[in-house]
């Protein structure tokens, strides 16, 4: 297993060395306890696909998968996730091929600015993993933690429904 | 956020010991509310004591027929647990009406009981708030108080307790198991949260450094007649203006047992035993529910912008009791049935 130290440990007594398996790569990093998982990904590991929107758990832009479950990386401390597997938008595609949701978002014009898209896609994958969305009404309810300020919600739901229903993208 | 130390506990006993040795430390489980408060500098800590590793089986059936919810398991794992879906559907619906899927995947059962009010003035450090800073005053009473309480208020505070899960737990007569420096004890759910009085900074009756370890549900789960109705400014991902949990036990048309708990109206889940007693032995009709609604809302006081809540709460009670007769009509997010 590849292990890389990506930042210099800080010389403060309360820094913690943690290990996160991010998109399949085991990564050791030394952090102050108050660093959010979101800031850890973006500022310390240069994984800027995960977006910082409201930074208060209200918009869903920072959604990542933690041990397969969708969470808000802004409302958790990185040190609390020591030993976890994290999947970000950078880890969604396989090889050179886009994930079916990424293709569907493009085909359904499911974004304008695209800022909410990584969170929307990670959230939809988490929703599929949960297996609780049966109808379009369920999908709307279970995707309600992801806001799109451009108002592309209709196309986002259409893209997700197409992948959910098998579509051409599986 | 201020700088702080982080301690990962391995057992309740060491978590309690660690927190008791410090002046200004907090337990952290899901952290979905706590981290937000830390980010706004509404709260500062010297140390966080992480209790996530105390997690065990999320839902456990006990020998006496009761069911124990693990305090450190997530709201989502609880709401989707087959035992909760089958035996306590009211609780499942109420949890799923709260927050978003991501937050429910993080927030824990114990933490849900301890979340702070979302009163705008509590969150705005530039305004007086007796809950945030005892003795500083209440900005909500003469402020924009649309979301605030109408029952059990005091001159010090009109904030509401924001949980959905707790409204169902109140209706189900749950018990809270806590562990502290002086050992373990159980608290009836109705005694767990408190009214503001002249000490609104205290949300509940936990003693310093006590840790919630579990929530016990009595055997009776009201599987046939239940409903959770949540009324809010948008259909999903918002706190309740008014919410109602109804758990009913019917024999033919007669009400054998009923519990009605309200959210969004007070500093704690609101139940009026006299109204429930009034309904027992009566038929499940709109008129009887309307009479009970009057009893539940009796004594309500409104403020400049929230007087609509009094009528809204009465209608919500009636509607939800009628919805409880047909729980299959419950829509996702605890919206009114069509």
What does it look like?
The complex is a heterodimer of chains A (170) and B (338). With 170 residues, chain A is of the alpha/beta class. In chain A, 29% of the residues lie in helices and 16% in strands. Chain A is built from 5 helices and 6 strands; from the N terminus they run E-E-E-H-E-E-E-H-H-H-H. Chain A has helices spanning 37-44, 100-107, 117-130, 136-142, 153-164, and strands at residues 3-5, 16-22, 25-31, 63-66, 69-72, 85-87. In chain A, helix 2 (100-107) packs across helix 5 (153-164). Chain B is an alpha+beta fold and 338 residues long. Chain B is built from 13 helices and 12 strands. In chain B, the strands form 3 sheets. In chain B, strands 4-5-8-6-7 form a 5-stranded antiparallel β-sheet. In chain B, strands 9-10-11-12 form a 4-stranded antiparallel β-sheet, sandwiched between helices. Chain B starts with a strand and ends in a 15-residue tail after the last helix. The chains are: A alpha/beta (170), B alpha+beta (338). The interface between A and B is medium-sized, with 35 and 32 residues.
């Amino acid at each position: 297993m590849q292990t890389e130290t990506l930042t210099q440990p800080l010389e403060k007594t309360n820094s913690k060395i943690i290990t996160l398996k991010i998109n399949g790569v085991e990564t050791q990093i030394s952090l102050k306890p108050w660093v959010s998982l979101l800031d850890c990904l973006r500022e310390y590991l240069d994984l800027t696909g995960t977006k910082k929107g409201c930074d208060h758990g209200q918009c869903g832009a920072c959604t990542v998968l933690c041990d397969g479950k969708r969470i808000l990386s802004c409302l958790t401390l990185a040190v609390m996730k020591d030993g976890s597997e994290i999947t970000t938008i950078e880890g969604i595609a396989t090889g050179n091929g886009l994930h079916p949701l990424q293709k569907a978002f493009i085909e359904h014009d499911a974004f304008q600015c695209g800022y909410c898209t990584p969170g929307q896609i990670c959230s939809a994958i988490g929703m599929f993993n949960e297996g609780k969305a049966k109808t379009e009404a369920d999908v709307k309810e279970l995707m309600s933690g992801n806001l799109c300020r451009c108002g592309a919600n209709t196309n986002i739901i259409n893209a997700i429904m197409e992948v959910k229903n098998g579509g051409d993208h599986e | 956020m201020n700088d702080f130390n982080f301690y990962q506990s391995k057992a309740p006993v060491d978590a309690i010991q660690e927190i008791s040795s410090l002046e200004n430390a907090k337990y952290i489980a899901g952290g979905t509310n706590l981290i937000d408060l830390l980010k706004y500098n509404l709260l500062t800590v010297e140390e966080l004591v992480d209790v996530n590793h105390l997690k065990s089986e999320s839902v456990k059936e006990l020998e006496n027929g009761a069911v124990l919810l693990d305090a450190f398991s997530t709201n989502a794992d609880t709401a989707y647990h087959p035992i909760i879906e089958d035996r306590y559907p009211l609780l499942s619906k109420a949890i799923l009406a709260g927050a978003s899927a991501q937050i429910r995947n993080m927030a824990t059962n114990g933490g849900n009981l301890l979340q702070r009010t979302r009163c705008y003035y509590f969150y705005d450090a530039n305004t007086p708030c007796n809950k945030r800073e005892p003795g500083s005053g209440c900005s909500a009473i003469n402020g924009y108080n649309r979301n605030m309480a109408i029952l059990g208020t005091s001159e010090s505070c009109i904030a509401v307790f924001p949980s959905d899960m707790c409204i169902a737990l109140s209706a189900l007569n749950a018990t809270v198991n806590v562990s502290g420096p002086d050992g373990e004890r159980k608290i009836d759910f109705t005694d767990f949260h408190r009214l503001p009085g002249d000490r609104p900074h205290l949300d509940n009756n936990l003693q310093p450094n006590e840790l919630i370890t579990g929530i016990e549900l009595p055997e009776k789960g009201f599987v046939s007649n239940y409903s959770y109705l949540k009324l809010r400014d948008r259909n999903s991902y918002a706190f309740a203006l008014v919410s109602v949990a109804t758990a009913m036990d019917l024999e033919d048309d007669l009400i054998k047992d009923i519990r009605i708990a309200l959210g969004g109206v007070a500093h704690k889940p609101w139940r009026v035993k006299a109204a429930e007693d009034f309904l027992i032995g009566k038929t499940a009709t709109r008129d009887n529910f309307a009479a009970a609604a009057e009893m539940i809302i009796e004594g309500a006081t409104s403020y400049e912008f929230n007087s609509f809540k009094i009528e809204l709460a009465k209608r919500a009670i009636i509607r939800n009791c009628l919805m409880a007769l047909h729980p299959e009509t419950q829509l996702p997010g605890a919206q009114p049935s069509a």
